[in-house]
Amino acid sequence: MLLLLSAALAEEPKFAVTPYGFVRPGFAWRQDDPSLATDTDGFYVAARMGLEAGSEAYRVRARIEVELQPEPSLTDAFVNISPSQVLSLNLGQLKVPYSIEYLAAETRRQLPNNASAVDQGSFGRDIGALLEVRLPVAQKVRATLSGGAFNGEGRNRVENVNDKLLYAARLNITPLGGRERPYEGTGRDVFLGVGGGYVYNFTGEGQSAVEVNAFAAEVQFAVSVFSIQGEFLDKEVVHGDTTVDDFHTTGAYGQIGSFIPAPFVRDHLEIVLRGGWSDPNTAYDTAGFQEELALEGGINLYVPEAPKWMHDTKLQLAYRHTIQLEGAVLDDDRFDVVGAVRF
Q1: pTM score, whole prediction
Q2: What domain range includes position 132?
């Protein structure tokens, strides 16, 4: 027994370093309205590289990730400490826990572009600390409560202008048990997730101060080849400068996805439909602040014979038709062809 104990103590903890990344080329065609100043047509490429290192013995891992396009920029840089299955602590720069669509990896979302409500309501990445408390039952996570404090100034910004912080809290209940990637797409096991999040942030000082209160609610369901996902997002912005109008952003979307359960294409061909409503500012109906509906559809083709060092390799085709509910009618339908390769 003493020999076994001494051998265990002498054994060095396993430490692994894993490089990863993705390349995501695409082409976008948009029915640009003559009244709009920008043209969003053309080819684009998104690419990232990262390193993840960890020790299972010490239950510690670290991640650093760099966005390569259009110029090198740090995205993730944090350390995760998980002393038990119940507790997990992240320290560094990471995504603020809010929208489930934004929390999913860019290459694993069921449609290549976010719903309008998500683009208007998300908070991106920030520097801070995030504590997660998980409730495991029968070796499956049935609920996760997250809470954290962040700098609140945005990605790659260390300076804090007013010494105030961004506070975020999320609750995700999964009564049928968690899964490896809880926010992403269609799963093979039965999965149900409901929950929501709250974010408070105060930036700037005096006349340049901006106070933000945001709330999100969500639902996800997946079984076999089928999945459903929906969110409601609401954000209130108050300015310290009384000459600048405050505004209220709100929106929601629902989407369904299904693989085609037929020979040869099962697990490789997925159909996705999404309907979304958004109002960037409930007080205005001018161009850029109009309430609108967006009807979207897409086809995902997953490459069946990708090499082992590649995964989640797919081609996405998506079309968005926008219907303005107020103000001027704009021509801004959009078609995207996007490839994704993770390695």
Answers
A1: 0.88
A2: 29-342
